[in-house]
Amino acid sequence: MADPPLLELRGVSRLYRPRRSLLARGPEVVALDGVSLRIAQDESLGVVGESGAGKSTLTRIILRLERPDAGQILYRGADVARFGPGALRAFRARVQIVFQDPQAALNPRMTAEEIVTEPMLVHRDTVGLDRRGRRARVAELIETVGLRPDHLRRFPHELSGGQRQRIGIARALAAGPELLLLDEPTSALDVSAQAQVLNLLIDLQDRLGLGYLFISHDLAVVRYLCDRIALIRQGRLVEEGPAAQIFDAPRTACARRLIDAAPDLGAPLRSAGRTTGTD
Amino acid sequence: MPPLMPPLLEIRDLHLTMATRDGPAQVLTGVALRIARGEIWGLVGESGCGKTLTGLSVPRLVPCPPAHYPAGEVRLDGEDLMALSERRMRALRGRRIGMILQDPATSLNPTMRIGDQLADVALAAARHDPALLGPGPARTAARALAATMLDRVGIASARQRLSAWPHEFSGGMRQRVLIAMALIGAPDLLIADEPTSALDVPVQAQILALMQGMAADRGLGMILITHSMGVVARACSHVAVMYAGSIVETGPVVEVLDRPAHPYTRALMAAVPGRHTPRGTLRALPGTVPDLLAAPPGCRFAPRCPRATPACRAARPPLRPLGAGHAVACAHPDAPAHG
Amino acid sequence: MTAGTRLPRPAARRPRALRRFGRNRLSLLGAGLVALVLALALFGPLLAPYPAHVAGGIDTAARFQPPSAAHPFGTNELGQDVLSLTLAGARVSVLAGFSVVLIGGTTGTLIGGIAGFLGGWIDEILMRLTDLMLIVPNLILAMTVAAVLGPGFQNMVLALALGWWPGYARLLRGEVLAARERPHVTAARAMGASQARVLVRHILPNCVSPVIVKMSLDMGFAILMVAGLGFIGIGVRPPVPEWGTMLATARAYMPDMWWVAMAPGLAIFVAVFGFNLLGDGLRDSLDPRGGR
C-alpha cells in the first residue's frame, strides 16, 4: 500500500448557528459541506473561492481550532481529532499557518526576533535548541526569507507590508513544519511585494520540500504557485484537478467565471469601447 | 495644438510637503495631469508613491498642516481649486467631485439605513443644484433618486433595499452603494481610491465594468487609484505611473502597456502573474520605495533601477513626450517605435 | 539587499515610547509635577520648617499670621505653619491615592481579565457583580463603609478601593475580549502555545496601556476623593495633617484668612493636574503605532 498523503480531508462539514439573541439562534449557515481534499508531500494545492465560500473555516478546522461537525482530518493517516495534548502539540509544530494580514497577525509588542523565536520556545522539547542555538536559527531563518539581521530588532509597525509577511513566513518555518497553510498571504500586499512573496514561497518549497495549502480568491496567483487547484463555492468542492487542466478545460461555470475575472496583462489590450488618446 | 476649452481637470506642477516628526518629507514633487470628460485615468504605483495624496489633493481633503503645498495648481474646468475658500470648496465636494474610498466596510455609517445615507448626500448636493431632484417634497424626491441610483449600480429591487442596513450587504454590494453615493450628486469628476482592492477578483471585475459604464454614459472624468496594472489594463483609458512623488510615465493605456518605456512601468507589469506565467518566472522588483525624508537626488527610481547611470543620480529627468500622448521621465527609456 | 534605499527609520528599542513622551511638553510638565508631588510625599515631613507643628504642636500666640518670610503661607487657627502641614500632608494624600488606585486597579484588572479570558458563566457572574458595584455612587459607598468601619487611613483606603475596581474590570474585560479575537492570538494558538502563554505573552501586553493610563488619570481623582473624605470629616483624623482636612478647617475662616486654605488647595491642584497631564501623555506615547 502506498504511503498515506501528508494531509487528507474526508467529507468535512461545518455548520454555524449564529446567535440571534441570548436565547434564540438563527438559521444554520453551512461553512463547509462534505469537502474532501488530499495534499501530498512537497505538493501545493490551491483552494480558490469567493469570500464566504468557507476557505478560512477550512484552515481553522485543519489546525483543530474548530471541530468539524462531520468528516475526518488525517495527518499522515492519523486522525487529528483523536490526538491527545502531546500529539496535538507535535502536530501544530508540523503544520503552520501564514495569515492574510501580516500587520494583524504579528503581536505589535514583540520584536521580529521575539516573534520568530517564539515557536522554538513553544516547541522547545521537539526543536531542542538552547538559547544560542535559537539565535543562530533565527539568523538563518531571517536570511532564508530575504531580510537582513538588523530587521530583527524592529517591531512589526516599523516594517513594510512585504517585510512583515516575510517575518510571518519565518515564524511559520521556525518549528520546522512539513505543511504550510497559506491563507491569502499576498492579498494585503501591493503587486511588487506580492511578487516578492510569491517567489519566496516557490523558492522555499523547492529548497525545503514543504507541502502548501494555498488559499486565495485570485486564480492567476494560484495558477502561478500551485500544482493542483480546488474550487470551493458555498462550502462545497466544485471542481478539482491539475492547475493547467482547470485553466485550459474548465468543466464548471464557476471555474470559467473565476478564470475570466483573473487579471491578465498578456491578453490583447485593444478591446472594444476603450478610448484611445484624445489629443 | 492648445485646446480651446480647458480640460475637466488639470493638475500642474503640484508639490506637497508633509511635516513629520523627523522633518519635512517631499511627498509630491511636481505632479501633472490633464483629464478630459469620458477618460478613466489609472494612477498606479506601489504603496507610498503619493497616489492617494494626489487623489485627495483634488478635493483638498489633505489636512494642512501637517501638509503644505509649496507650489502647483489644481484646476477644475479652468477654476483654480487651490484658491477657493473652504466654503466654496465644500460646495464642490460630492457635488462636482465624487470620491470613493478604499474600504467599503468602513466607509458606510453602520447605524443608518442605506436609503437614508444616499438621500442625505442627494439633499446636500441639491442645496447647490436644485435641479438635481425631481418635483415634489425634497425628502421624497431624494429617496426616489436614491432608488434610481441603486438600480443604476446594479442592485436588484432597489426600492426595497433602501431600508436595508449596511451590514446586510456583501462587500461588493457595499462598494456599489458607495459608487451610487459618489455619483448621486451627478459629479463631473470621480476619484476612486483602490475601489476594488478589498473585493474578490470576480467582484472586482464587475465593479470595474460598472465604473467604465458610468464614465461612458455620463461623460465623467475618472481617476482610479490602484497598485495593480491588471486593474489598469481592465478598466482604464489612460494611465499615469507614479513613483516616489512624481509621474514617471503617462499616456493612453494601449500605448503605455504595449510599449512601456520606463523601467518602473515594466517592473510593475512584470509583477502581475498572468494566466500563463510559468512557475518561478515572475520578476519581482527588489527593495522598497525610498524614504521621502531623504530621497535620493536625481531620479528617485535610480537606486532600484537596473539601468541607472551616474547621470541618473545627478539630475532628475523631466517628462518627455514620445508621441501619441505617451510621455516618460527617464534618461534611458525603452525607446518605443512610433509609426 | 538594496543599497541606497533608506529604510523607514533606524531601529531603536524600548526608549521609543519614552522619546515620543519626551517630545510633548505638556506630558513633561505633568511628569515634573508628579515627580514633585512624589518627592514631597517621600521627603515632605523632613523639609517642613516647623517639625513640631507637624507632630501636633500648637502656638496660640501666632494664630492667623498672614504670609511672611517666617511663614510663607501664613499660620492657621492653632498658630501652626501652613507650609509645614502641607508638606507633611503630601505623604498621607499621595499614599492614600496611590493605595486606592493600586488596590482597585489590580483587583479590577484581575477580575476583568479572568472574566474576558475564560468567558462563559464565570464571565456572567463577575460582570453582573461589577454592574452591581457600578450602580452605587463611589463617594456614598465610601462614606457608608468609612462610617461603619470608623475613620482612619486604612479604612478610608479600603472604602475607596471597594468602589474603584469595577471600572478597571469593565475596561480590561473589553480589552481582553477584543485582543482574544485578533489574528496574532489565533496565530499563537495555532502554533501550539499554551493557554498561559497566550494570555501572558499575547493578550495582556496588548491590554495594559489603557490600564496604566487610567491608573495615572485616576491618581489625581483618588487624591481628590481622599481630600474629599477628609473634608467631610471621615478621612484621616487630625492632628495627622492631610490636605482635605486642612481645607475643611480653613473653610470656616474664609475669605478673611484666605492663606490658610491656599497651600493645601494649591497642593491638591498641582497633584491632580500633574497626574492628569501624565496620563494624557502616557496615552499618546504608549501606543506602539502612535504617530507624532
From TrEMBL, chain A:
Its domain of life reads Bacteria
**Pfam families, alphabetically?**
ABC_tran (PF00005)
Which key words are in the record?
ATP-binding, Nucleotide-binding, Transport
Say if the entry is tagged with keyword Membrane. Answer: no
Decide whether keyword Transmembrane is in the record. no
SMART domains associated with the record: AAA
Q: Where is the ABC transporter domain?
A: 7-259
Single GO molecular function? ATP hydrolysis activity
Gene Ontology annotations of biological process type: transmembrane transport
Q: Which family does it belong to?
A: Belongs to the ABC transporter superfamily.
Which named protein is this? Peptide/nickel transport system ATP-binding protein/oligopeptide transport system ATP-binding protein
The species this protein was found in = Rhodovulum visakhapatnamense
TrEMBL record, chain B:
Entry's Gene Ontology molecular function annotations: ATP binding; ATP hydrolysis activity
**Membrane topology for this entry?**
Peripheral membrane protein
Name the UniProt record assigns to this protein: Peptide/nickel transport system ATP-binding protein/oligopeptide transport system ATP-binding protein
What's the main place this protein lives?
membrane
UniProt keywords, alphabetically: ATP-binding, Cell membrane, Membrane, Nucleotide-binding, Transport
Organism field: Rhodovulum visakhapatnamense
InterPro entries reported for this sequence:
AAA+_ATPase (IPR003593), ABC_Ni/Peptide_Import (IPR050388), ABC_transporter-like_ATP-bd (IPR003439), ABC_transporter-like_CS (IPR017871), Oligopep_ABC_C (IPR013563), P-loop_NTPase (IPR027417)
Lineage, top-rank taxon, reads Bacteria
A GO CC term attached to the entry:
plasma membrane
Query: SMART domains of this UniProt entry?
Result: AAA
The answer, when asked if Flavoprotein is one of the entry's keywords, is: no
What does the similarity note say? Belongs to the ABC transporter superfamily.
Places the protein is found:
Cell inner membrane
Q: Could you mention a single GO BP entry for this protein?
A: peptide transport
Domain ABC transporter as annotated: residue spans: 9-269
UniProtKB/TrEMBL annotation, chain C:
The protein's matches in PROSITE patterns, at most eight in alphabetical order, are given as:
ABC_TM1
The cellular component terms of Gene Ontology attached to this UniProt record, alphabetical and capped at eight, are:
plasma membrane
Membrane topology, from the record: Multi-pass membrane protein
Family according to the record: Belongs to the binding-protein-dependent transport system permease family.
Positions of transmembrane segments? 26-48, 94-120, 132-150, 219-237, 257-279
**Cellular compartment(s):** Cell membrane
Task: Please report the name of this protein according to its UniProt entry.
Answer: Peptide/nickel transport system permease protein
